Amino acid sequence: MRYIADGVVSDAPAGRLNGSAAYREIPEPFAGGFLIKAEMIAAFRDGRTGLLMYDTETIPAMSAPTAQCVTVRDRNIVHSRFVFDRTPCDEFRRRQARANL
Q: Most exposed residue of 39, 47, 64, 96, measured as fewest CB within 10 angstroms of its CB?
């Protein structure tokens, strides 16, 4: 979170989030509740744009490839686009909800 601009704009499968507090909502539940391990596949940088691709092993999915494209200004991330398939996590949450009924 050190390099996240206060006014960062983040586009994720759940929709657009504005601000660093909202940005924090993307990885924290994932890392705290589902993540087993993450492996970097590739990282590229071109001027102000960076692209990360990694694969994550999670409780709901053995392999969940994820990509993040960031725009950097003044050494801070000002825009982030997350791309990943939410289906395994959504199905896992539904199973948990049914089990808790």
A: 47
